[in-house]
Amino acid sequence: MKRLFMIGVTLLATQVLAGEAQPVGEDPQIEQRLNGLAEDLRCLVCQNESLAGSHADLAEDLRREIRDQMKQGKDDKQVVEYLVARYGDFVLYKPPFKPLTLVLWLGPLVFLLVGGITWWTVLKRRRAQPEGMANTQARAEAARILEGKSE
Amino acid sequence: MNKRLIPLIVFLVLAVFFAIGLTKNPREVPSPFIDKPAPAFRLPEVGNPGKTFGPEEMRGQVWMLNVWAPWCVSCRQEHGVLMQLQAQGVKLVGLNWKDKEREAAALLARLGSPYLSTVDDLDGRVGIDYGVTGTPETFVIDKGGIIRFKQTGPISEEVWKEKLEPMLKELAR
Fold first, then answer.
1. In this model, does residue A46 exceed pLDDT 50?
2. What is the CATH number assigned to the segment(s) B32-172?
3. CB B29 to CB A87 under 8 A?
4. What is the mean pLDDT of residues B130-142?
5. Domains of chain A
6. Which chain A residues contact residue B130 at CB under 8 A?
7. Mean pLDDT of all residues in chain A?
8. Which of B98, B131, B134 is closest, CB to CB, to A86?
9. What is the pTM of this model?
10. What are phi and psi of B138, to 5 degrees?
11. Residue A47: its pLDDT value, please?
12. What are the residue boundaries of the structural domains of chain B, listed by start?
């Protein structure tokens, strides 16, 4: 009796699982496009998650919206424009190149340039410096100390 | 200038940048709707079977579209303030975002409604058209149907006094 009950419970559990599984999208091509596009879009609720990876309610709604638009034959660019019109550039993980984002895009290059120039000038100055009096003196001192230690 | 001070200066500049960054709220995403026409919609009214509402009905008036939901805790917080505003004659329209009409109607019946009209956006599509990311959010819409301001998060008495009241007065002229 107990065994039968257990089997029954197990069977019931699998049925419940089967019932909860997400329906697979009808069109695998659209699902693939959706996932590819949603990787580069930000979920606005969990801001560090992509739209593809988020389980937030809004993310699911937005995926539904994107899916519908793709079914209507809109291309990726049109879908992204639709989202940017509503949520702003913030929805894009890759911000567009425009005056407002100049510092963002060119800042690292400027830093690299400044760093490079500094590095180069320091190296050049060091190479140009002859071994001065201080250096010779310091070396003699070091040798003396080392000798003293070894004795 | 003393060379040893350079790392300190670099550190201070960075510290100032980070300090400014910490005071910003990442939830306050700049809305692309400011100074753009409020998107049109036509939705059924909550607790008013058979009736619908669209924003064009508010033409010629300054009003606020308040996005809320019965399950939303901070909406409950601002509810008291909204009731006071309604008593002062501020025109509010509620958008019940992604929750059942029945729940919203029951809540408004129990706590009182600050809204001229409350519409039901069960599937959240109108919310998406307004770029809503959460509740509560409030849009200030002028006489010409242009969105002038978006408040993310609850309207406290402070927010009303400092931001919204002066703006509504200005727009009402």
1. yes
2. 3.40.30.10
3. yes
4. 93
5. 2-96 (1.10.8.640), 100-150 (no CATH)
6. 86
7. 82
8. B131
9. 0.76
10. -130, 130
11. 81
12. 32-172
